[in-house]
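Exercise: predict the fold of this chain.
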Amino acid sequence: MAQAQQWLKERQVQRVEIEWKEDVRVWHPGQAWIWQPGGMGVFDPGINALSIATAILPQPFFLQRARLLVPSNAQTPIAAELAFTDPKGAVIAADFDFRQSGPPTWDMHIETDEGRLSLTNGGCRLVINDEVIMEAEEREYQGLYARFAELIANKRSEVDVARCARSPMHFYTVIVKPPTLSLSNARATFVYSRLPSTRRDTPAGLPSRIASGRRPSGSAW
C-alpha cells in the first residue's frame, strides 16, 4: 500500500470506486454471530476496504449517503452502498455485498488528474496507468500478526482514530440515530428482506421493504 499511497499523494483524486464482495457462506459458514448485534454483517470484510482507502487516499473522506440491505430476521446488513466525498470534492463510492458466489472481489479503482490506479485482490496487485507495479501473495493475517508481535515486543500501542471513524460502529450510529448524524448531512436508506432458512440460498429476489431511518413494524430490531 505504501507505493499506492506515495503515488496518490502527489496527485488530485477525482473518483474512487470500491468493490468488496464475497460469499458469506464460504467465509462465515453457519456463523450466526455475524448477523447479531455487534456482528457487523457485511462490514466485517468492508472494514478492510475502508482501512485501505483511509491509508492510501491523500485526503480524509466523509460519509454522505448509505443504503443498507438488512434482512428482517437479522440485525446487521448483508449488503451496503456507500457514498463519500473529500474536502476537494472527490466522488467516492463503495459497494459491499455478502451474496457474491465464486471468487471474492476485493478491488478499488482510483481516477486522478494524472491517470488511474487500481489496487486489486485485497491490495495484493497494484496497477498504475495499465502498468503492473506490484503483484504479491495474499499475506493479510501474516502481516497483521507480525505487527502485533512487534508492538507487544516493544510494549507499544497503536490506534488510528481516522479509521475508527469509518468503522461499522460509525454506520450503526446512522441506523440507530439517523437525526443525530451531522457529517456531510448524511442520509441513510434501509432495505429489508429476509435471510433464507438454508445457507445455500440467498436473499436475492425475495420481497423487500424499504424504510428510512427506522425498522418496519413487526420485524426484530
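Check your answer against the key: Residues 173-185, 198-221 have pLDDT under 50 and may be disordered.
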